[in-house]
Design a protein that fits this description.
single chain; 90 residues
Length: 90
């Protein structure tokens, strides 16, 4: 039976390494992305996936915690990582 709460979301970043990290988090949540675009040079990465809005919030929380631990910048914004790396989930 199909859950009507499931929606399509997109993860977008200007850094390929953040997209790779996000794919690892999706794997933890046992989600298979619908579409993955991670170019090798100077472009935006995009990952499309489907889940519920509540689970999407959990995914972003875990992803944020993973980034903070990996970069050891507890009080820094994602914009300040690695010279301007950023991400958005919408």
């Amino acid at each position: 039976m199909y859950d009507m709460r499931i929606k399509k979301f997109e993860f977008e970043t200007n850094e390929g390494y953040l997209a790779d990290m996000f794919l690892q988090i999706l794997e933890v949540f046992r989600l298979t992305p619908e579409d993955v675009f991670i170019p090798s040079f100077l472009d935006y990465s995009n990952i499309e996936f489907r889940t519920t809005p509540d689970r999407r919030k959990q995914i972003e929380y875990v992803f944020w915690q993973y980034i903070k631990k990996k970069h050891k910048k507890v009080n820094k914004s994602i914009v300040e990582l690695e010279g301007g790396g950023w991400y958005a989930i919408f």
